[in-house]
């Protein structure tokens, strides 16, 4: 049995597997920024290859923190499911952070939270901004440290779906995203390590400066509208994985952070239009703080 533990930003992960190919694939996903750790870990993922030696009934049984998640028949689906299993374990067990379902990037000393439900385009937008020189924290979680109020990095690999892959490959062909041959539960997907997007792209912890709630709608002309901190607080509460775990302190934490934050809702029809509006929103936020 192979057993390795990694510190991936703010989250520590142990992978246990009897497959050297699974371990090698996972290490490749986080080699550029993860460091080995001997400390107690947040997430334990087990990926056990089962079946006969001739491979006719080969399968991979994957669980996170002792919870059985799924059985995979094809090796090319293992890495996406490792990432999804890790996501669930973080959401269910890592309550030392206030968690919001969001992608996060940063530029300079300011963090941008891109909050939204699935299919809002968060992963595509985070990857596109990172390609353009922004720093990457995560495409799935805003992890807020209650003690410091800082957004913490969790630079897991991005799970890219077919639509996102087409957009990102067109935006920057050198990335070369290749989708799985077979569809899995979310269609054809690709696992995109952060260093494939851009070397040195992982952010350090940063204060929250801008909140954007993006929506993608094909053909939309583009809309960026500022909303109140109270409206943003309600939306972030609904998007939080563990708001109830933090109770009143969670409300107080978000209210305190949003006092120094500008908040927007955004609708876009193209990735370039979305990037331009994010640039505009962060410039407006900087102007208000200076004033």
Structure description:
- This protein starts with a strand and ends with a helix.
- Strands 3-1-2-4-5-6 form a six-stranded mixed β-sheet, with helices on one face. It has a five-stranded mixed barrel with strand order 7-8-14-11-10, surrounded by four helices.
- The radius of gyration is 19 Å and the shape is globular.
- It has two domains: 1-94, no CATH class; 97-291, P-loop containing nucleotide triphosphate hydrolases (Rossmann fold).
- The protein contains eight helices and 16 strands.
- With 291 residues, it is an alpha+beta fold.
List keywords for this structure.
2 domains, six-stranded mixed beta sheet, 291 residues, 8 helices, five-stranded mixed beta barrel, alpha+beta, globular, 32% strand, Rossmann fold
Brief characterization of the structure:
This protein is 34% helix and 32% strand.
Beta-strand portion reads 25-35%
Mean pLDDT: 90
**What is the tally of beta strands?**
16
CATH topology of the largest domain: Rossmann fold
The CATH superfamily of the largest domain appears as: P-loop containing nucleotide triphosphate hydrolases
Q: Which geometry do the CA atoms define? A: globular
Question: Which regions are unreliable across 5 or more consecutive residues at pLDDT < 50?
Answer: none
Q: Write down the domain tally.
A: 2
What is the distance, rounded to the nearest whole angstrom, between the alpha carbons of the first and last residues? 59 Å
CATH class of the largest domain: Alpha Beta
Strand order of the largest sheet: 3-1-2-4-5-6
Class by alpha and beta content: alpha+beta
**Shape-level CATH architecture of the largest domain:** 3-Layer(aba) Sandwich
Query: What's the alpha carbon Rg, rounded to whole Å?
Result: 19 Å
DSSP helix fraction = 25-40%
User: Order of SSEs, N→C?
Assistant: EEHEEEEHEEHEEEEHEHEEHHEH
Major sheet:
6 strands, mixed
Q: Please, how many helices?
A: 8
